[in-house]
């Protein structure tokens, strides 16, 4: 008697039909489509549970300054602590990105990202003031084995707004002019894509009108604007868009209002931080953002003595900039060695300098020289 169980497989015809349907509806292939159906069913069968804080967690303060602290531990314990309810003015952070493969700093897979992020979203909502802001620097990624983009960071944004009550104040885009061409297989080999050099930055809040003033982040006027300000007799003109260029445009307001495209090269290679890590045999954090990024949002969205928190503190760049701008701060990092590297930032005695670089984006119709 044959006791083997009979397995059921899709026929070749059925699989081709599913594959064709999947590709015509935005999926890479049938496998991705079937996996997505499975994940959707999983989500519908279980409701998200409220996070339960670990009251026995042994978080350690490994460095303290006059304005803040580096904490080695799980930031969820701090965010969900009733003592910190509505205490924070700004959460400025760059969480581990949702990629298709694991990195040394412990990122999450794009397919599981929103579920992993839920307790953080809940904690952010609990700890932020009504006047406070949440700023998330997040990098997009590509879907596995195909030159098409993942939507995980947009799904995260929708989850934060639709399920946790956040408002999207304004999206920003961080353009890193120094970023190398990637993904190499489609950019430098097949030449079917251009290099991916922009991170999305979601600026969110618990209420529609958080604290913010663009007067704190004004840039220098352009040569044309300076020329306009010096004109005594400004002719009234109407642009094709219908905007009236009147004498109001000749008022000096102290500087130019910045756009939501932030051009900041991430080229730290010989800094005090890196020298400190090498000297003390510490691993250098592989995913640091430049000082100019938190600098912009801290000046834009907070005032002196406000509290800035980075729950994915890494090398404590957010804490370092907060200290220099006279804000209270807390940097929380789960990895003890990476948290320890941040101490080096506060031992640097050189004066803090703001970014003064200028970058150009050339029109694609110019072509090479």
Please provide a written account of the structure.
- The protein is α/β, with parallel strands linked by helices.
- The protein contains eleven helices and 13 strands.
- The strands form three sheets. A nine-stranded mixed β-sheet has the order 1-2-13-12-3-6-8-7-11, with helices on both faces. Strands 4-5 form a two-stranded parallel sheet.
- The N terminus is likely disordered.
Query: In this structure, how is the largest beta sheet organized?
Result: 9 strands, mixed
Assembly classification: single chain
Q: Within the CATH hierarchy, at the fold level, what is the topology of the largest domain?
A: Rossmann fold
Strand order of the largest sheet: 1-2-13-12-3-6-8-7-11
Average of pLDDT: 86
Shape: globular
Helix content: 25-40%
Please state the CA-atom Rg, rounded to the nearest Å: 24 Å
How is the topology of this model organized?
Blueprint: H1 12-24, H2 30-45, E1 60-64, E2 68-72, H3 75-79, E3 88-93, E4 98-99, E5 108-109, H4 113-127, E6 128-138, H5 152-162, E7 167-175, H6 184-189, E8 198-205, H7 223-229, E9 237-238, E10 244-245, E11 261-263, H8 272-279, H9 292-301, E12 307-310, H10 317-324, E13 328-333, H11 336-341
Parallel strand pairs: 2-13, 3-6, 3-12, 4-5, 7-11, 12-13
Antiparallel strand pairs: 1-2, 6-8, 7-8, 9-10
Question: Which key features would you list for this structure?
Answer:
disordered N terminus, globular, two-stranded parallel ribbon, 11 helices, nine-stranded mixed β-sheet, 369 residues, alpha/beta, 2 domains, Rossmann fold
């Amino acid at each position: 008697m044959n006791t083997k169980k009979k397995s059921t497989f899709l026929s070749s015809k059925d699989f081709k039909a599913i594959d064709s349907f999947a590709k015509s509806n935005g999926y890479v292939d049938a496998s991705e489509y079937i996996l997505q159906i499975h994940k959707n069913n999983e989500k519908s069968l279980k409701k998200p549970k409220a996070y339960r804080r670990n009251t026995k967690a042994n978080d350690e303060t490994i460095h303290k300054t006059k304005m803040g602290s580096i904490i080695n531990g799980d930031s969820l314990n701090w965010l969900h602590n009733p003592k910190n309810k509505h205490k924070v003015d700004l959460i400025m952070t760059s969480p581990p990105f949702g990629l298709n493969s694991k990195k040394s700093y412990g990122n999450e897979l794009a397919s599981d990202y929103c579920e992993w992020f839920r307790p953080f979203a809940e904690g952010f909502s609990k700890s932020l003031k009504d006047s406070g802001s949440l700023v998330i620097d997040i990098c997009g990624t590509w879907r596995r084995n195909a030159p098409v983009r993942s939507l995980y960071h947009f799904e995260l944004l929708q989850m934060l707004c639709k399920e946790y009550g956040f408002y999207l104040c304004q999206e920003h885009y961080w353009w890193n002019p120094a970023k190398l061409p990637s993904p190499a297989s489609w950019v430098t080999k097949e030449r079917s894509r251009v290099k991916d050099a922009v991170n999305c930055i979601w600026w969110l809040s618990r209420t529609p009108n958080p604290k913010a003033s663009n007067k704190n982040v004004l840039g220098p006027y352009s040569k044309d604007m300076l020329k306009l300000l010096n004109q005594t007799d400004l002719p009234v003109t109407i642009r094709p868009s219908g905007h009236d260029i009147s004498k109001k445009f000749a008022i000096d307001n102290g500087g130019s209002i910045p756009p939501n495209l932030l051009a900041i090269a991430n080229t730290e290679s010989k800094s005090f931080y890196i020298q400190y890590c090498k000297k003390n045999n510490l691993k250098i954090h592989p995913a640091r953002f430049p000082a100019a990024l938190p600098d912009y949002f801290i000046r834009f969205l907070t005032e002196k003595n406000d509290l800035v928190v980075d729950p994915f503190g890494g090398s404590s760049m957010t804490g370092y900039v907060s200290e220099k701008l006279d804000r209270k701060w807390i940097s929380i990092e789960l990895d003890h060695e990476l948290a320890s590297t941040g101490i080096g930032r506060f031992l640097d005695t050189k004066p803090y300098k703001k970014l003064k670089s200028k970058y150009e984006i050339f029109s694609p119709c110019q072509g090479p020289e």
